[in-house]
Design goal:
Length: about 575
Amino acid sequence: MFRHVYGKPKKREECYDDIKVTTNSHDSVYCSINPKFVAVVTESGGGGMFVVIPLTKVGRVDRDYPGITGHKGAVLDIKFCPFNDNIIASCSEDCTIKIWNIPDGGLIGKSNMTDAVVDLHGHQKKVMYIHWHPTAANILLSASADNHMVIWNCGMGQAMVDIDCHPNLIQCVSWNYNGSKVVTSCKDGQIRIINPRNGKVLKQFKGHSGGTKSTQVTFLKNGMILSTGFSKMSEREYALWDAQKGMFKVMETIDQSNGVLFHNYDVDTGMIYLIGKGDSVVRYYEINDDLPYVHYISTFQSATPQRSVGVMPKRGLDPSMCEITRLFKLHTKGLIEVIPMICPRKSEMFQEDLYPDTLADTPALTAEDWLEGKDADPTLMSMRDLMPKTTAPQIKIAKAAPKPNLLASLACGTKERPEEMQEISKKMEENKKIEEKKEDDISKDPDAKPDVVSEYRDFVGVKDKNAANDAKSAAPTSPTPAKPLQNATPISNASSHHGFDTSVKTVPHTGPTNQEYDQLLVELKNLKMIVMGHERRIRNMEFKLGEKEREHDHIKSQRQKDSDAKQKQ
């Protein structure tokens, strides 16, 4: 279904230009997008800074555009809250996590924002990654260089769970579909599935064999895990893991580049986008239950390398143009390129197969419910509500009194047709009555001889009118009809000799005698022989004419060749 998906980059004036994207080497995407804002980590003279730009403010961004400058160290990761488009979390090398409230319209015309709504302290080293819970409100997970993960209740500003099960640096973290489990990758090469409420390791297995190089993991909706990493030969590869058994189902080599492969998983369609740091391509696959499980679709390729790529949530897409995702590519020279991914369809109506119900901006649980052990799938919303009314034609059901039939007078191009049909039906009824009367007569006198010649004339008249007329002119004058013969013998072999059945429709004999009937058949055979002879003569004449034409064409071409040869001489 997605084999024709392609990327359609927008023009430069429809993108975001002149933004100083950070040059930090930390393995992060450095951006976050929602239907209201685009947030990007930028370079700053001292401390950490990121800017939040309204989605509609495209074009060149002013150099003095106000940013968020509350961190004392470099900002390493930012994430918008999935349930409130104005809330964004950030983590930094200053060991803190801050929650910010962005006003509608952004910070245009204002000064830098330095005061956060909530400050979260507790990590002993830099905080590298943060992830909001997919179903519970105000639950945030953070991973630090001190090898600890912490579950925070941002509403209360408190740490609720401290997870200490990693002996080395945490490289990636991902929630599962309902937020009941977490999968992590670690610098020790192990992939761990953890219960986030108590920090217990549920499953642990060896990941990619590329040593200490970064491994990225994503929990899929069906419970499997997709990972990207490196082989012993430093080749980039992806693998699909059975989370229950800790064994891979698929492992394929991609290429020999050395950039980290980030993931973006579309939980609605099962598509996953592999985005290589420093690459100029974006590969996308479809994951389903059919072998080989991970199906390569295509590659979007551009001329410039990417610093990273952000992705718009599904509720921020435009279903009227069959947009299944929207990528925000961070260039190294300050451009954020907007790339809608299109699945082409001819119809402009809402495509239900492309847009199943998607994640809504309403939490399914409160923080307290989740901490008590409750789980719930995410709240869903219909993408049909995002369809512009002008491009979604609908069938209007008539509820008023029925109107007269506009096509009744157009049948066969004439208004008098219904009256003719009535006359035809009357004639058919009359013929039916005549047939019934004949059958009654036959039932009264079953030994009567049928009028075979009359029926045969009707039969022949339908197929070959000329032959019937010749047979009629050749037939002798019929004597005056006589009374039916009581002891007449019925013709039993009429069907086999003459090609029609007389056992169904029989009438009392009032026509020629048997001798006259045989004479008619003989004359009819003679006429057929004459017609067949004429047909043979016509075919012979056509064949001879064709030969003459071919001979004439040959002579003409030969003369033309001779004249050309003489001219050359």
